[in-house]
Each structure stands twice: as C-alpha cells, then as structure tokens.
Amino acid sequence: MMLVRCLLYFALIGASGFLLGRLLPKRLFRAERFPFRLFRWEREGKIYNRVGVRRWKEKVPDMSAILPWVMPSKKLPANATAAQMERMIQETCVAEWIHGLLCILGFGCVFIWRGVWGWVVSLLYLLGNLPDIIIQRYNRPKLMRIYEREKAKERAYE
Question: How far, in whole angstroms, is CA 139 from its chain's centroid?
Fold first, then answer.
C-alpha cells in the first residue's frame, strides 16, 4: 500500500513538474549562469562520454515525442535560426531544472513510507531522473556552439 502511495506521489510531482516547466518564462533560464553553466570538470560535456551517454540518450523517454503538441521537438531543424537555437538551449535548462527539482521532491516519499523502503524508492526515483539531467548537460555545449555560429551568420547578413 505504501508503494502505491509513493508511486501516486511521484506521478503527482512528475505531472506538476511538467506543467511548471511549460508555464515558467523561458527567459529566466540562462545557460551561461549557475546552475546551468558547465563546470570546468565537465570539459564542455565530454565527461559524459565516460558514462556512454551517446549510446543510451536516445533510449530515454522524451516528452516531446510523447506529447508533441505540448513540447517543442528536440530534433534540430536543418536550417535552425539563432532564435530557435536559443529556445532549444533554454529548454535544456528548463528540463535540467525540473528534473533536479524532482530529484529533491522525490524524497518526500520518506514521509509517506517511513523507514528504509521510503528511502529506497526515493533513491530509485532520484536515479531515474539523473539520466535526464546528464543528457541536458551533455547536449547544451553543442547547442551553444551552433547558436553562436548561427548568431554570427545572422550578424554577417545584416
């Protein structure tokens, strides 16, 4: 019974996090600022190659594929504009922030299911959200390079 309550709690915070991510103004999320700015030890996202992110990132469920009418596509358009790239970068920040928030809120389950099993399912929920954070931090440097290149092209044509 406690497991069902925790699963319902996870579904509730997951759905709430999704809605919050859609409603928050994207301009609040800046890739060059903490906590989204990459740390030196991340080596422009290359550190994530050690966990094989390239091999498994496409296998992680993607809300833009599940709810395409609500979420912008994660696929890069062939001729993306600087504005489109900026929006994609902001979306990576939003996704990272929401999954980080879910990692923290997931520990609310320890109050629903007191004892070791509440901690176990909370840790599993955290581990389930970490791949999404890693993917965002892996993809963002590439998107930022494309954004800078497109911005420079657009300035050259002005």
Answer: 10
Rounding to the nearest 10 degrees, give the CA dihedral for residues 38, 44, 46, 47.
-30
Scan for tokens 């980080």, then name that residue: 100
Give per-10-residue mean pLDDT for the chain (158 aa). Answer: 95 95 93 92 86 88 72 73 91 96 97 96 96 94 91 82
Q: What is the pLDDT of residue 119?
A: 97
In angstroms, the Cα distances linking 12 to 16, 66, 90, 110, 154 are: 6, 18, 24, 16, 43
What residues make up the domain containing 73? 2-157
Residue 31 φ then ψ, to 5°: -65, -25
Alpha-carbon distance 140 to 146, whole Å?
10
Residue with tokens 């296998």: 59
**Into how many domains does the chain fold?**
1
